[in-house]
Amino acid sequence: MSTKKLAAFSFAILAALPASAQEKVLNLYSARHYQTDEALYTNFTKQTGIKINRIEAGENELLERLRNEGVHSPADVFLTVDAARLGKADELGLFAPVTSAYLMQRIPAQLRTDTWFSFSKRARVIVVNKASVNPADVQSYEALADPKLKGKVCVRSGAHPYNLSLGAALLAHHGAQKTEAWASGLVANFARAPKGGDTDQIKAVAAGECGVTIANSYYVARMLRSEKPDDKKVMEAVTIVWPNQKTTGAHINISGAGMLKTAPNKDSAVKFLEYLASDQAQVYFADGNNEWPVVAGVKTSNPGLQAMGDFKADTVKVGALAAKQADVQKIYDRAGWN
Ligand code: FE
Q1: Which end of the chain has fewer CB atoms surrounding its CB within 10 Å, N or C?
Q2: Which residues pair with 112 in a beta bridge?
């Protein structure tokens, strides 16, 4: 075959090939930045031949970028943590509905919506200084508002998504009036004005600056796995209480993702979401931040999580948590939880 003929022949083949045989890509906007997530992406490409172009940044930055890019956005999937943030993206109309029998079957109904899916779970737990607070007195979130804990409670800002989602769960269980009374009681018990993140609160509890706090489980697991002498000392001074074990269960939040409405590579996007629900990806995804898989029966071997033991989880739907953020913010504002 002459060169000229060969060229024409190749062109004919290319034109005849379906799009799927051309280079497939997935453009991922991710607010997660854990080292073990690398293995996740490499594996996906190995399994599917789909190359991942990834942009990592803070949640707000990525949301802003998506809004600015509008219909021209190259992004296929938005990956972030907390139902509050996924809910916000959904409210902005960024996500497209995804129909996938595999995702429906793998991910429990309370951990998905029509547009976005949870891929790992975290719990909000109670951390107690054994020397200053009796763990028996702080067995539930509700108990933290009891006047007997006056001057004992440290907690991060009420405006933070973690606390807004917790409030949304309480709102779902108790209604607005009781939730506001709870928030007011909590604020009345503050040892100090909210400052810092969950780990700062755990350290303040260990140091005796306060007696009790609420923190996400992965911060606790991270400290439990830490080899640093300072961290070990912190964890020796505190004890972990699984909240609401006799009632509604510990509040659960998630990390999750959704396909964008403007996704140029919708096939790749659905394949990626499905991949995140596979056994192997579930382990990487959850372990990467000391979280639990969402798919039943997937086993992790994380010593930090194992040390924390089993617990009863709240089953409020993540979609309901996301939908109530604005209401909760108003309740917290009135209660003075800034
Ligand atoms: Fe966090």
Answers
A1: N
A2: 117
